[in-house]
Automatic annotation (TrEMBL), chain A:
<dbReference type="InterPro" id="IPR005532">
    <property type="entry name" value="SUMF_dom"/>
</dbReference>
<protein>
    <submittedName>
        <fullName>Formylglycine-generating enzyme family protein</fullName>
    </submittedName>
</protein>
<dbReference type="InterPro" id="IPR042095">
    <property type="entry name" value="SUMF_sf"/>
</dbReference>
<dbReference type="InterPro" id="IPR051043">
    <property type="entry name" value="Sulfatase_Mod_Factor_Kinase"/>
</dbReference>
<dbReference type="Pfam" id="PF03781">
    <property type="entry name" value="FGE-sulfatase"/>
</dbReference>
<feature type="domain" description="Sulfatase-modifying factor enzyme-like">
    <location>
        <begin position="43"/>
        <end position="253"/>
    </location>
</feature>
<dbReference type="GO" id="GO:0120147">
    <property type="term" value="F:formylglycine-generating oxidase activity"/>
</dbReference>
<dbReference type="InterPro" id="IPR016187">
    <property type="entry name" value="CTDL_fold"/>
</dbReference>
UniProtKB/TrEMBL annotation, chain B:
<dbReference type="InterPro" id="IPR051459">
    <property type="entry name" value="Cytochrome_c-type_DH"/>
</dbReference>
<comment type="similarity">
    <text>Belongs to the multicopper oxidase family.</text>
</comment>
<protein>
    <recommendedName>
        <fullName>Copper-containing nitrite reductase</fullName>
        <ecNumber>1.7.2.1</ecNumber>
    </recommendedName>
</protein>
<keyword id="KW-0349">Heme</keyword>
<keyword id="KW-0479">Metal-binding</keyword>
<dbReference type="GO" id="GO:0020037">
    <property type="term" value="F:heme binding"/>
</dbReference>
<dbReference type="GO" id="GO:0005507">
    <property type="term" value="F:copper ion binding"/>
</dbReference>
<dbReference type="InterPro" id="IPR011706">
    <property type="entry name" value="Cu-oxidase_C"/>
</dbReference>
<comment type="subunit">
    <text>Homotrimer.</text>
</comment>
């Protein structure tokens, strides 16, 4: 009897994976409910199943994109959607500066450009909740946030200079099979400005005191909050037309059942 | 007639006074002080300060401050990624006068990774400017404020995580001078204390990341003036001449520790307590809170080197909170006699105080791989341990500390030299024909450090070029 349940379960699982064909260059992320570290009105959020790009979008991928969609070329992009730093590490519309590598993550892209890129591939930018959900995994666990080493590693990256010049895929992938969520560049999210962080971070601390109680419930350490704080701080400082040296993106895709 | 003349004089002088008063009109409310014209503020790196405001009128003052995240040296062989206002720790000194309208441009360099902002304690307004200056990398934010209260104020970054931004060096001082300026003095300097928290212990070589847990526990590895060990010692010492009045703008960025600021061998004639209006006189040590400042003034009467310390004294001698003021000029034997007799009195000598023996000292985790590294590490040990007495070129100090350069005593016997570093040396010796009767305490160094430092000494300044290895040190150590 026990055996039979096991079989049924295995078959069910098999069918589940078969019933869904994975997009190339993406992996399937099983949704769940979780408590984000900081910055929401309600403590528990739900993330539905989705697919996520394995790597951040690279310079060479973005080059293909601008060849296909001239309105996003460096010289053509509308000032409404980009600032003057847009692709400023590119020599011209189709060439990188000699110091840049094709397999480095593309940076100096605005939110509008990133969003257009994903949409042109039939994808979209991840939400903050989706991004944070996948990013809380390390190599062996889906939620590594309480591990001191995980947090220390992230904090160390926040301090390391010029990581945007590294190639993608050099650091270990996390348990989902996703690379470089931490360690290379910040990444745009669809709703980056939905969490209102004012310039006055200390006031934010007061405002969201409930959240700290919430995170305390999942045994948060100070380190854990600090790493998340820094991500929310950078998101809070952005405007959609900004193009920044250390800011790239990747896309996700909804699952159509 | 004479009376009439007197009246006339009185009238004229009254007129003059009233004119004068008109010019120096005291505004009941400093926010009403009008500004005339625009000027760009002079910003200076520590330990320098910009020119005093003097009698200039209140102006629209443009301050352009660039934020740079960059790697620097904490102490010999130890690197650290500093976050800075203007490229230095502490950040550039801003000098304003009461009533100035400061137009503040905060520029976040495109290479930086993080957003930043600035909270100036001299600002009256929400967040001290932090709210309006939150700026992403590669962008510039502009806001303006009027200086309403005279005093010396701290500014710092207030972006989450605030403690980490401050711990990485994001603080500095802004001075608001009263109407007519502070009294003119001969020398002015800018000094700011800060505590640093590194993953490795004090002195551990290499690039050291920030350690959040130590910062939360307030267990500092380094407590320093002006961002690094030795920023105010040796060639970097601040200077003055006998008879001059020195004013120090002293701040404390924290993030964790309060400073007991003291200058060894001086008494502060005046202290503007906490940087405000109230002046205390004849002060030995003044307390400077984290996120606070003080102005201290004193006249230097005798020549010599005066040591600036945080009188929480282990911070000074073990964590780096030590600076030097070198005063040149004529001696005044009445004020200070200098040495009259040469007797030995050593309350901190090895016989009286329990010091760790060399056996208990842990070996370095990164041993020197070759001669070049031995020389490099040896020099670091020398500068930390031997330099104070034997001096930078091994020349020693006449009549007090024997030279190491071309020293016959040193070159005659290697094992004796190792023994001296291991166990110390007391009593009369003759070096290059001169007699010395001094005391060298035993040094708290590992065998490897002794091998390195002696190799450095033997291969410098015309000595016999011997190379010492750890085994030789161990042999001498185990002989007794």
């Amino acid at each position: 009897m026990k055996h039979r349940t096991f079989y049924v379960l295995t078959i069910a699982l098999l069918f589940h994976t078969l019933g869904f064909s994975q997009t190339e260059g993406m992996v399937f992320i099983k949704g769940n409910r979780y408590i984000p570290l900081y910055g929401r009105d309600s403590t528990v959020v739900e993330v539905k199943d989705f697919e996520m790009d394995i790597f951040p979008v690279t310079n060479s991928q973005f080059l293909e994109f601008v060849k296909q969609y001239p309105k996003w070329q460096k010289s053509n992009a509308l000032k409404l959607f980009t600032d003057k730093s847009y692709l400023s590490n590119w020599e011209n519309d189709f060439e990188l500066k000699s110091s840049e590598k094709p397999d480095s993550p593309v940076t100096y892209v605005s939110w509008f450009a990133a969003k257009a890129y994903c949409e042109c591939q039939g994808k979209r930018l991840p939400t903050v909740d989706e991004w944070e959900y996948v990013a809380m995994a390390d190599e062996n666990t889906r939620d590594a946030r309480i591990k001191p080493d995980y947090n220390k590693q992230i904090l160390a990256w926040y301090e390391a200079p010029r990581t945007n010049e590294n190639s993608i895929g050099q650091l270990p992938k996390n348990i989902w099979g996703i690379y470089d969520l931490h360690g290379l560049v910040w990444e745009w999210t669809l709703d980056f400005n939905s969490v209102l962080i004012t310039g006055e971070s200390r006031k934010d601390v007061d405002k969201d005191s409930n959240l700290f109680c919430g995170s305390a419930a999942v045994n948060a350490t100070d380190l854990m909050n600090y790493a998340a704080f820094m991500r929310y701080a950078i998101r809070g400082s952005l405007k959609a037309k900004y193009s920044i040296k250390n800011l790239g993106f990747r896309c996700v895709k909804d699952i159509n059942k | 007639m004479k009376n009439q003349l007197n009246y006339l004089l009185l009238f004229i002088s009254l007129l003059l006074i009233s004119c004068f008063n008109n010019q120096e009109k005291n505004y009941e409310n400093t926010s009403e002080i009008p500004v005339s014209r625009e000027m760009t503020a002079e910003l200076t790196s520590p330990p320098n300060v910009p020119t005093p405001v003097g009698r200039r009128k209140a102006k629209k003052l443009i301050v352009k401050m660039e934020i740079l995240e960059k790697e620097g040296e904490m102490t010999d062989g130890v690197r650290y990624v500093y976050w800075t206002f203007g490229g230095t720790v502490p950040g550039s000194f801003i000098r304003t006068r009461i009533g100035d309208e400061v137009e503040f441009h905060l520029q976040n360099h495109p290479d930086n990774k993080l957003p930043h902002n600035i909270d100036l304690h001299a600002v009256t307004g929400p967040g001290g400017g932090a709210e309006s200056s939150f700026v992403a990398p590669g962008h510039e934010k502009v806001f303006s404020f009027k200086t309403l209260n005279p005093g010396l104020y701290v500014y710092h970054c207030a972006t989450a995580p605030v403690g980490m931004h401050i711990a990485n060096g994001m603080y500095g001082l802004i001075l608001v001078e009263p109407e007519g300026g502070l009294p003119i003095v001969d020398k002015e300097y800018y000094i700011m204390q800060g505590d640093f928290y590194t993953k490795g212990a004090n002195g551990e070589r290499g690039l050291q990341p920030f350690d959040m847990q130590k910062a939360v526990d307030e267990k500092a590895d380094y407590v320093v003036f002006n961002g690094k060990v030795g920023s105010l010692t040796g060639d970097n010492a601040i200077t003055a001449k006998v008879g001059e009045t020195v004013r120090l703008f002293v701040g404390n960025g924290g993030p964790g520790l309060v400073s007991s600021f003291h200058v060894i061998g001086e008494i502060f004639d005046k202290v503007h307590i906490e940087g405000g209006n109230k002046i205390n006189e004849n002060v030995q040590t003044t307390l400077i809170p984290a996120g606070g400042a003080a102005l201290v003034e004193f006249k230097v009467d005798v020549p010599g080197t005066f040591i600036l310390v945080d009188h929480s004294i282990f911070r000074a001698f073990n964590k780096g909170a030590l600076g030097m003021l070198k005063v040149e000029g004529e001696e005044d034997k009445k004020i200070y006699s200098g040495e009259i007799r040469d007797d030995i009195y050593l309350p901190e000598g090895p016989g009286l105080q329990e010091m760790p023996t060399t056996n208990e000292i842990v070996e370095s985790k990164i041993p020197a791989k070759n001669f070049d590294e031995q020389m490099k590490f040896g020099k670091q040990v020398y500068m930390q341990t031997c330099f104070a007495c034997h001096q930078s070129e091994g020349q020693g100090v006449p009549n007090a500390f024997p030279p190491l350069a071309k020293s016959d005593y040193l070159n005659a016997d290697v094992n004796r030299a190792i023994g001296v570093v291991l166990h110390g040396l007391t009593g009369e010796i003759t070096v290059n024909g001169e007699k010395y009767n001094s005391v060298m305490t035993r040094q708290m160094l590992s065998s490897e450090e002794i091998a390195n430092v002696l190799t450095y000494v033997y291969n410098s300044w015309g000595n016999s070029e011997k190379v010492i290895n750890t085994d030789m040190v161990e042999k001498v150590k185990n002989k007794k």
